[in-house]
Amino acid sequence: MRPDHDVVIVGAGFGGMGAAIELKRLGIDDIAILEREDDLGGTWHVNHYPGLAVDIASVTYSYSFEPNPYWSRLFAPGVELKQYAEHVADKYDLKRHMEFGTVVRTAEWDDSEQLWRVTTGSGVRTCRYFVTATGFLSQPHTPDFPGIDSFAGTIIHTTAWEDGHEFAGERAAIIGTGATAVQLIPEIAERADELTVFQRTPIWVVPKLDFAIPPGAQKIFARVPFTQRIARMVNTSLLEALMVFGVLHFRQAKPGNRLAALVAKAHLRAQVRDRATRRALTPSYDFGCKRPTFSNTYFRTFNKPNVSLQTSSIERVEPDGIVTADGEKVLVDTLVLATGFNLWDVNFPAFQIIGRDGRDLGKWWRDNRFQAYEGITVPAFPNLLSLNSPYSYSGLSYFTTIEGQMKHMRRLFGELKRRGATTFEVTTDANDRFLAEVTDNLQSSVFYNGNCASARSYYFNQHGEAALLRPNSTLSTLRQMERFPVDAYRYS
Ligand code: NAP
User: Fold this and answer.
1) Is 294 exposed, middle or buried (0-12, 13-18, 19+ CB in 10 A)?
2) Would 311 be classed as within a structural domain?
3) How far is the CA of 457 from the centre of ligand 1 (A)?
4) What is the CATH classification number for the domain harbouring 469?
5) Which one, 159, 324, 363, 404, has least CB within 10 Å?
6) Are strands 334-337 and 171-175 parallel, antiparallel or unpaired?
7) What residues make up the domain containing 258?
8) Last residue of a domain, which of 309, 337, 365?
9) Average pLDDT over residues 135-146
10) Domain count, the chain
């Protein structure tokens, strides 16, 4: 049976676009990119709250093969990322493959026809190869606070920002102090009459060495691309050192980790006058247990007379405000949920995927351990590339992960072609070896040697395993992705 498409990719963010670029380079053009949102860009389309910017310098947070010399700042604002996504889609001729507003509900491998059947809201598509690029941080988490349905004011989750909402004259509340809230809180504090920040777990925040990139420097980047490559190399090396020595080799390099925590504490001390507030904003877990963030304005916002920090837990929501466990009531007109994303319950995978012999990927991961060979393929799931898999996220910039996976696809599809085969499936042996290797590598990390008990970090899953990050340097990830043994797969 001839399938509808050679490849269906789910997700038109940077992961899905990277996969499509690689497939087109391999000569595969019959690709459908299905996207549930109404435009491309993934995270950078969905998120448009005030203050949104990258927290990895833009020279690194972009495809290495498609540098953008015109980033306006070292850390570009979110809107430039969305423009960059548009540019990439145009340049690599991806838009004609994209179908927006298409929600994938399930996907099932048909072993007799050797193809995938992908069920969307509007019917079934068949394809030879199926690529999921649905993101890690794509299923918003909306806590079920008692009484929240009775709230009479406005509730806004940061992923569904209401651009016209002014906040002027309002009493605003923000729940959450993750990376999103750290960017948003200084902005809302400027606009609202009163702002109460509900913090459950403080976050490590280090200074952001951000500045505008002068037009002269942009011109040099454009005319002599080598200069931007050097800038990328320097920045990527710094991030790599932070990740490898601060997080992955915590056991051997504790002083590096302690130094990062000291920098964050000094930053807090320099910015917040009140000692009790400083104490409340100081994490009790080790640096790196959860993703730290960068900001020059977050801490100092708590000095403002219209801003208060609330650390007592939320007991219930009433029509006009929030009641905390210590009995205090905070009156609220607009409630902002900066409560992040659900990774481990409703993601992994983002919808039901049924492989060979009826194996349900989500159930199999939960009943066994979360696992994927090289963070991309799974035994009993032929012709599936699951880009947002356990142990796939390598380094701090998501683009390292994407480009590693593009290398993996190049080698895998090259081998399929060489053998004249159309189906691949990773062997259980190769998968087991990879899982043993990452498990072993993680033993030195801050996750298993540091004090992470109070971090409530999304790096950890429901089994208590830090199964998100690939525990090796990005250089070794890239090397392994391009040189994995081809007999890790069965071909037919
Ligand atoms: P997050 O890090 O998961 O933070 C969610 C916040 O909501 C946490 O402070 C959490 O507290 C709080 N929360 C959740 N449920 C709660 C409840 N029931 N009661 C009270 N508080 C609750 O999510 P995020 O801030 O959206 O960031 C997610 C990731 O997105 C970041 O780590 C980063 O990787 C990425 N990001 C990147 C950028 C960028 O600049 N590129 C910007 C924003 C986000 P607990 O910690 O106690 O659970």
Assistant:
1) buried
2) yes
3) 9
4) 3.50.50.60
5) 363
6) parallel
7) 148-209+236-337
8) 337
9) 96
10) 2
